[in-house]
Amino acid sequence: MKLFDSAFGIHEQALDLRGQRMEVIARNIANSDTPHFKARDLDFKAVLNETQFDQSLKTTQSMHIRSASSMGQADMVYTIPYNTSADGNTVELSVEQAKYGKAAAEYQATLRFLEGDMSGVRKALRGD
Amino acid sequence: MSISNIFGIAGTALNAQMVRMNTTASNMANASTIASSPEEAYKAKRPVFEALLTEAQTNQGAEHVGGVKVSGMADDTTPHRRIHDPGNPKADEEGFIYLSNVEEVTEMVDMMSSARSYQNNVEVINTARELMMRTLDLTKV
């Protein structure tokens, strides 16, 4: 159905990405005591652009080698720590906690948009 | 589904921190054990954490890529203190006994650090759970 494909707009993909970003931050928090662990983050804007306009290279045959971006690793960036630590770990717990809180709020914001879209569709279906 | 992965990842961290806290308890319990040679004396144990970056590194209790696991235990290499106590039943022929190399203050600090990390990960799970519930509410009429 055409109507429902576009009813939720960008928020459908955005929710998925927001969830993924929270997962990446959860990885950092889980590894806050692991020596030599490098904290990573998801470049949200880049990934969303990619999913929206799909500028990534396509493989049209099974023999083609997939590019790094189509494997989903390219958009992970290493974060630069404010302070260095002796064991080579670049996770700064306070920074990651703040990021996680913000990511959770952003997730809720996207949810709110989706809720609005859904109630719109529901209203249209009900017809009253 | 990424939100549900968070539970797994934070879970591996809870496991690892629990092992670390258990190790601290074990070190504290053995802080005052003595032995007749430096080799036999109790050495403080330290868990070695390792990030789970690939599927191959996962194992029982740490099944989620992106999490953390305890890959081994290392002995603290600080030299043991030697005390002259000829009356002690454990004393060697020269009358020396060897204490464990557990440093109580270090252990306390380590315990607090792991308790904080544990709490952090519990908070991560709580937030993820809340968001998951909110997402489920989307289906409510």
What does this structure look like?
The complex is a heterodimer of chains A (128) and B (141). With 128 residues, chain A is mainly alpha-helical. Chain A has one domain (2-126). Chain A is built from four helices and two strands. In chain A, strands 1-2 form a two-stranded antiparallel sheet. In chain A, helix 2 packs antiparallel against helix 3 (44-53). The longest helix of chain A is centred in the C-terminal third of the chain and has 34 residues, at 93-126. Chain A starts with a helix and ends with a helix. The relative contact order of chain A is 0.19. The mean pLDDT of chain A is 83. By secondary structure, chain B is of the alpha+beta class. Helices cover 43% and strands 17% of the residues of chain B. Chain B contains two helices and five strands; from the N terminus they run H-E-E-E-E-E-H. Chain B has helices spanning 2-29, 104-136, and strands at residues 34-35, 45-51, 68-75, 82-84, 96-99. In chain B, the strands form two sheets. Chain B has a three-stranded antiparallel sheet, with no helix packed on it. In chain B, strands 2-3 form a two-stranded antiparallel ribbon. In chain B, helix 1 runs antiparallel to helix 2 (104-136). Chain B is elongated, with a radius of gyration of 22 Å. At the A-B interface, helix 2 and helix 4 of A face helix 1, strand 2 and helix 2 of B.
Distance between the first and last residues' Cα of chain A: 22 Å
| Integer count of domains of chain A | 1
Number of strands of chain B: 5
* Count of individual helical segments of chain B: 2
Label the overall shape of chain B: elongated
Instruction: Tell me the overall shape of chain A.
Output: flat
Integer-rounded radius of gyration of chain A: 19 Å
Main beta-sheet annotation of chain B: 3 strands, antiparallel
- Average predicted confidence as pLDDT of chain A: 83
